[in-house]
Predict the structure of AcrR family transcriptional regulator.
Amino acid sequence: MARNAHPEVTRRRILDAAQKLFFTKGYEHTTMRDILDELGDLSKGAIYHHFASKETILDALCEEDGQRMKASPIRNDDSLDGLHKMRALIANSVANMPHMRLMGEAYPTLEDPTTLAANLRAWRTTVADMFLELIDAGIEDGSITTDYPREAAEIISLLTNYWLAPTFYPGTQAELRHRVKALALMCDSLGVPLLTDELSDQLADGYAAFLSVDESHTGEATQRSGDDGSAAQ
């Protein structure tokens, strides 16, 4: 068989097919065989040449997602002050449904201690550093007044990515909204008035979408169980 002259194209196809299945079937219910079947014309060896497992595929998708956020033109938009850049980044993030769906699929993998530790390092450093850059810019331009720039950046990074996620802290939609209000008060008390009422609603709605995704995956799994005769009688 001829050597693949465009491995980056094959890799992209694998990632796109896997993401489609993760979003429709759920990460937990998708297998490497499913991804192979979705692609149709690739051999098992071709997929495993690029990715050792579906976990490594999800890691690659999350890495791409993080790089897109870091490369956002909002960070270099001179028409916005530091505070409004932070607000715009968060608003864009929660409005980006592929991003939110990917986060929702990735969260259950954090039950693995090694994966959780690596993820925490990323949010504690890369994401917190990005927020710190914008908080420092806000202090310089006068839109933010805080004596705790590093602490605020770390708190915002960790709480928006873990505490608000119903995967870690289950709650109803009303409870999620109350949680976001509590986060807004924390930010205000630190001198970083990040969450307006409108942005708070957007944030709560974005995380509430995880609830419907979890329910849809559970329903699909139950249906498949019934179809193959394995459901309890």
About this structure: Confidence is low (pLDDT under 50) at residues 218-233. Residues 222 and 231 are 8 Å apart (CA to CA). The chain is about 70% helix and 0% strand. Residues 72-212 form a domain with the Tetracycline Repressor; domain 2 fold (CATH 1.10.357).
